[in-house]
């Protein structure tokens, strides 16, 4: 049975043509179709020419959005001794050692990002079953296992996020809010595109980019012309 679209969504869908839009035009349309009663998230859905079941075709990395994400990021830090104080002074929302690990084991998950110092990782490893499915397990590749706590906390609060391609080779990333200007959304989308190109898996063969769509979280999908996006320079996207 086909689900009936709401009038709001039906009207939004009617604004979108079946074609690839120039990036700025697509982002302006994203804003026009974000008609929910809250500030919707801007999302990108990118199909890549990779098969993540092979280790040399997996994509997992981080991107720092120059215009931020529009979201408040709660950062927790697991460290020891003076590093706990350092984390608190650097703006961590939660900081602790073994006692924090114990609280997380009991179900405390009042954070969006978990950072740990390398010396605490043997103890943090026991949280893998709880943190892994939520994408919260610290890892060096994600920049969440580090001794530079102040730098990591500042980056994640400013708009650094981790993402990966799912098992079908599609990347789903939020890159701002519908209330952002088209210029700020474009700067973030350009940063995402450059990060994906820079981290192309060694095993990726043939055409790497297959398609890219953007949408507001409650709006219709809008195809972006990937060639136009990749041809933009940062000066044009700023």
TrEMBL record:
Keyword match Repressor: yes
GO cellular component term of the entry, any: large ribosomal subunit
Pfam families, per database record: Ribosomal_L1 (PF00687)
PANTHER family attached to this UniProt entry: 54S RIBOSOMAL PROTEIN L1, MITOCHONDRIAL, LARGE RIBOSOMAL SUBUNIT PROTEIN UL1M
Protein name: Large ribosomal subunit protein uL1
GO molecular function term, any single one: tRNA binding
Transmembrane segments: none
UniProt GO BP: regulation of translation; translation
Family statement drawn from the similarity comment of this UniProt entry: Belongs to the universal ribosomal protein uL1 family.
Subunit field text: Part of the 50S ribosomal subunit.
Record's keyword terms, sorted: Repressor, Ribonucleoprotein, Ribosomal protein, RNA-binding, rRNA-binding, Translation regulation, tRNA-binding
Function summary: Protein L1 is also a translational repressor protein, it controls the translation of the L11 operon by binding to its mRNA.
Taxonomic superkingdom: Bacteria
């Amino acid at each position: 049975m086909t689900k009936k679209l709401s009038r709001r969504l039906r009207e939004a869908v009617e604004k979108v043509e079946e074609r690839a839009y120039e990036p700025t035009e697509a982002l302006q349309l994203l804003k026009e179709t974000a008609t929910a009663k809250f500030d919707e998230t801007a999302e990108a859905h990118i199909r890549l020419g990779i098969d993540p079941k092979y280790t040399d075709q997996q994509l997992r990395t981080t991107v720092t959005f120059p215009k931020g994400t529009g979201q408040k990021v709660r950062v927790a830090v697991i460290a020891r001794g003076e590093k706990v104080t350092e984390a608190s002074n650097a703006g961590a929302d939660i900081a602790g050692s073994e006692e924090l690990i114990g609280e997380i084991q009991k179900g405390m998950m009042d954070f969006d990002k978990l950072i740990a110092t390398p010396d605490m990782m043997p103890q943090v490893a026991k949280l893998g079953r709880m943190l892994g499915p939520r994408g919260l397990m610290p890892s060096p590749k994600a920049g969440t296992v580090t001794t530079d706590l102040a730098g990591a906390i500042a980056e994640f609060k400013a708009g650094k996020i981790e993402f990966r391609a799912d098992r079908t080779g599609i990347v789903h990333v939020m890159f701002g809010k519908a209330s952002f200007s088209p210029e700020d959304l474009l700067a973030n989308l350009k940063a995402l595109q450059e990060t994906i190109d820079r981290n192309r898996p060694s095993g990726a063969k043939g055409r790497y980019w297959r398609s890219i769509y953007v949408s507001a979280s409650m709006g219709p999908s809008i195809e972006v012309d990937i060639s136009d996006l990749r041809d933009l320079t940062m000066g044009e996207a700023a």
